[in-house]
Amino acid sequence: MADDSTPPRPRVLVERHLPTPPAVRGSASLYLTEAARQGITPERKMLFIGQEPANEHVAAALRVETGAAVIARRKQFWADGVPVRIATSYFRLDVGEDTRLDGEGFVLPTLQAAIEDLGHTFGHAVEALTARPATPREADLLEIPGEWVVQILRVSISTDDVPVHALETICAASRHVFPIGQPDGTDQF
């Protein structure tokens, strides 16, 4: 039974721009940069760094077999003390094993710089957006029992046609809005 003397958690609505503007994507932290622009007090915590089997959609994105080992870097984000996102960066072993990409802590100055330091040049990216019910673990971490999430899978492909980074962001759907813009900044409807 809930304690009625506890005030309800304040509602938070954060923006996740699609496509991600290049200046934000290249910043030290996409989320910290977005939060600062929105006047939100951000927090982030690393949840897991290590190898795990690739699920079907991550395997397809990275062009590896389902169940193949990939490097995962999973973190959680809060806005004004409210959990809003879980983001996992995935790397093929031939891209990131025994590099800064599978090391402890946050990669500084950025993941993008670390990828470039390994000799990969960014070619293009594809972002896929899916709405679905939260898994039990997502619902627990985001404190959204019975709610839906929005899953964004962004795959960065090198100029050599190698998928070097898959970023899966799980957003609490009720706590996000997704402004859509044209890559060149000129919206047309």
UniProtKB/TrEMBL annotation:
SUPFAM superfamilies: Chorismate lyase-like. It comes from the Bacteria. Pfam families: UTRA. Residues 37-177 form the UbiC transcription regulator-associated domain. This is GntR family transcriptional regulator. It comes from Nocardiopsis mangrovi.
